[in-house]
């Protein structure tokens, strides 16, 4: 295709380019979404304030101007109608018009495909013309072109000033007058005005479709995984509400990234289009909530806090609160608390699991050995072998009895670890008696490490989470803990699913690919180092995760760059908008998402066998012979829509179940 385009340029004497959506693109899904942002910008930076629905007012005024004044009416005519309809004075209208021009300048950027063809035309020595059916002044259009790197051209035709347009063919007639007896090529995005009318004049054409429309076809794997069709359809259905405008900005940024070839894999697409907006909403909420609560320092807990801190620092930069990455795990924080008489919850911690473990797993995850004399004696006394699987209520009681009898051994270990852990905390600036102005940050779900830190340091930390459950341990903590998705509050079905059915998917997104589960702490010289569990981590899964997280941070960076000059109200993304793409992926996974996420082997704790997040284990032939197996696997699948999609891709009809 590029060769064909290059040949067309070579054969032409004059190459004309449409401007908007061809060489310049707005980082919104629809051009009219700019007007909702204009209202937010105007109300923030001007001494005036508009309460009317400006987006609708602006669109209606433009339609009226074209119908009653001139088919090529300019921005002054449009704002004259707005002044009449709203009874606004001249100063108000001029400020409002200036706000629109400012926002246009902020949101426009070069379109990679258009830039490439423009450069080819200039390098080939062709005469270059820019043509636009546009209400803007020619002087302002010149500024926009030069600002975005289009420094040289031979002619600029703007309908509002030149009185000719592409939509009725008169602009092409003007082209013939300006450059007679030439071979012409026109490049544009609009099928009617850029392609049909140009061809009607015998002009060769290159059709550069709008980025969002190209993404909607979902013919390319990356566009599929980015939910391109869903994003396109939802943009067409959008109103001018602020939430729809936020979604429009997100969609426009994603479409531009895909069109520029910036997403090469399914994982990158998931990160940029799904996890990126989700993470953006979270770090915006986190910073706002921390400042509201008077928090002055954040401690991001390992392992999930690594990507949270990275995203937080990238978005807030110089405005970010001081933060630290703190080694953490339930094992690391809970065991050092067990220095006194065991309470029932202590025994629950020592024996908790959602899968029948071996005796050696229970003992080993504390860092003890089953052949240690005191341990071996207790196990023999209770008739427990290292390879005994604790899979009955009687054996569960014996395992609890074993830890009661091993209390002195556990307390010795706890005391040793407690001393080292408190030293580490002091090194990180944590000390006893700290108040609510210090906050820990973690993915969730019950705040157990926050409670452990409070106990260990006799403090009252604030806790911020991606999500928390609604239960007997979270409810009493009240506003000492808060969450982006807080199930103690009334969540919608879409909000709640990310902390219920999609928990394992979310945990995968937040997992630190560079660090395994922390089970202990040791000191090398002056440095504290995590002791990590030996986990069988698939390299493909890790590489996908690296790409997902890197692309998510890229999205946050691109969003920040795109919106940096907009007021806070226009940059703030609502909860529902930030989770929209993730919720759609959860319920309607496509091939790319189902493969990348569904085939991840997930385990809830050390010693518990991992299983796929959302995929059958075997191939079609196995289930033809074992018809009940598919249903059993589905019943325990973490991500059921992903399981169904992966079954279909393996050629396994779910009716077999």
What low-confidence regions span 5 or more consecutive residues with pLDDT below 50?
A: 234-238
Tell me the fraction of residues in β-strands, as a range: 5-15%
Q: Count the E strands.
A: 16
Number of helices: 32
- Sheet/helix structural class: alpha/beta
Helix content: 40-55%
Cα distance spanning the termini:
47 Å
Question: What is the overall pLDDT average?
Answer: 91
Strand order of the largest sheet: 5-4-1-6-7
Shape: elongated
Give a summary of the structure in a few sentences.
The protein is built from 32 helices and 16 strands. Mean pLDDT is 91; it is low at 234-238.
Summarize the structure in words.
The structure is a single chain. The chain has 657 residues and is α/β, with parallel strands linked by helices. Strand 15 and strand 16 (611-612) form a beta hairpin. The longest helix is centred in the middle third of the chain and has 27 residues, at 266-292.
Key attributes of the depicted protein:
five-stranded parallel beta sheet; 32 helices; single chain; 657 residues; alpha/beta
Helices, strands, pairings?
Elements: H1 2-11, E1 14-18, E2 24-26, H2 34-45, H3 54-68, H4 75-86, H5 90-107, E3 108-110, H6 112-123, E4 127-132, H7 138-147, E5 155-158, H8 159-162, H9 170-178, E6 184-188, H10 191-200, E7 204-207, H11 211-216, H12 221-225, H13 228-237, H14 242-259, H15 266-292, E8 297-301, H16 305-316, E9 323-326, H17 330-334, H18 344-351, H19 359-364, H20 373-381, H21 393-405, H22 407-427, E10 438-442, H23 448-457, E11 462-468, E12 481-486, H24 493-497, H25 503-510, E13 518-524, E14 527-532, H26 539-563, H27 568-571, H28 575-587, H29 591-598, E15 601-602, E16 611-612, H30 620-625, H31 627-636, H32 640-649
Parallel strand pairs: 1-4, 1-6, 4-5, 6-7, 8-9, 8-10, 10-11, 11-12
Antiparallel strand pairs: 2-3, 13-14, 15-16
């Amino acid at each position: 295709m590029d060769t064909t385009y290059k040949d067309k340029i070579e054969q032409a004497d004059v190459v004309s380019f449409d401007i908007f959506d061809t060489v310049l693109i707005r980082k919104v899904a629809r051009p009219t979404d700019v007007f909702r942002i204009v209202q937010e910008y105007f109300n923030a930076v001007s001494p005036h304030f508009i309460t009317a629905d400006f987006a609708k007012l602006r669109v209606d005024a433009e339609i009226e101007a074209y119908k009653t004044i001139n088919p090529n009416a300019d921005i002054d005519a449009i704002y004259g109608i707005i002044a009449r309809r709203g009874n606004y004075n001249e100063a108000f209208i001029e400020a409002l018009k200036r706000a629109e021009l400012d926002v246009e300048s902020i949101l426009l950027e070069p379109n990679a495909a258009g830039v490439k063809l423009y450069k080819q035309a200039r390098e080939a020595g062709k005469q270059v013309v820019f043509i636009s059916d546009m209400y803007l002044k020619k002087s302002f259009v010149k500024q926009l072109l030069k600002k975005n790197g289009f420094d040289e051209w031979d002619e600029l035709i703007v309908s509002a000033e030149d009185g000719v347009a592409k939509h009725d063919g008169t602009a092409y007639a003007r082209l013939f007058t300006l450059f007679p007896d030439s071979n012409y090529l026109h490049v544009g995005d609009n099928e009617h005005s850029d392609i049909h009318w140009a061809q009607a004049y015998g002009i060769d054409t290159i059709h550069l479709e709008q980025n969002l429309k190209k993404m909607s076809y979902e013919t390319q794997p990356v566009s599929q995984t980015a939910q391109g069709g869903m994003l396109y359809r939802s943009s067409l259905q959008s109103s001018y509400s602020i939430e729809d405008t936020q979604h429009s900005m997100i969609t426009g940024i994603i479409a531009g990234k895909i069109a520029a070839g910036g997403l090469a894999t399914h994982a990158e697409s998931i990160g940029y289009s799904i996890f990126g907006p989700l993470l953006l909403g979270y770090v915006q909420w986190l910073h706002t909530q921390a400042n509201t609560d008077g928090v002055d320092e954040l401690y991001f807990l390992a392992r999930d806090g690594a990507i949270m801190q990275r995203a937080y620092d990238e978005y807030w930069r110089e405005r970010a609160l001081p933060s630290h990455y703190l080694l953490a795990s339930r094992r690391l924080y809970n065991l050092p608390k067990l220095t006194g008489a065991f309470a029932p919850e202590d025994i629950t911690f020592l024996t908790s699991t959602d899968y029948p473990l071996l005796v050696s797993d229970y003992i080993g995850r504390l860092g003890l050995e089953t052949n240690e004399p005191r341990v071996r004696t207790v196990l023999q006394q209770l008739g427990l072998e290292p390879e005994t699987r604790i899979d009955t209520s009687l054996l569960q009681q014996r395992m609890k009895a074993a830890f009661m009898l091993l209390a002195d051994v556990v307390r010795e270990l706890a005391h040793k670890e407690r001393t080292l852990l408190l030293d580490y905390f002091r090194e990180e600036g944590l000390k006893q008696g700290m108040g609510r102005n210090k906050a820990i940050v973690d993915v969730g779900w019950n705040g157990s490490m926050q409670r452990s830190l409070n106990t260990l340091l006799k403090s009252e930390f604030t806790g911020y989470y991606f999500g928390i459950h609604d239960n007997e341990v979270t409810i009493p903590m009240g506003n000492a803990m808060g969450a982006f998705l807080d199930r103690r509050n009334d969540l919608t079905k879409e909000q709640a699913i990310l902390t219920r059915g999609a928990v394992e998917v979310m945990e995968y997104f937040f997992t630190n690919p560079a660090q395994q589960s922390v089970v202990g702490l040791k000191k090398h010289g002056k440095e504290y180092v995590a002791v990590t569990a030996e986990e069988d981590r698939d390299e493909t899964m890790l590489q996908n995760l690296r790409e997902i997280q890197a692309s998510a941070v890229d999205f946050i960076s691109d969003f920040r760059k795109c919106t940096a000059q907009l007021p806070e109200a226009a940059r703030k993304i609502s909860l529902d908008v930030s989770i929209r793409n993730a919720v759609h992926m959860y319920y309607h996974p496509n091939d790319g998402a189902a493969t990348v996420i569904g085939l991840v082997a997930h385990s809830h704790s050390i010693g518990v066998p991992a299983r796929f997040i959302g995929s059958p284990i075997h191939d079609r032939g196995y289930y033809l012979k074992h018809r009940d197996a598919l249903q059993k696997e589905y019943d325990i699948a973490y991500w059921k829509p992903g399981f169904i999609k992966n079954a279909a891709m393996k050629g396994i009809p779910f009716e077999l179940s």
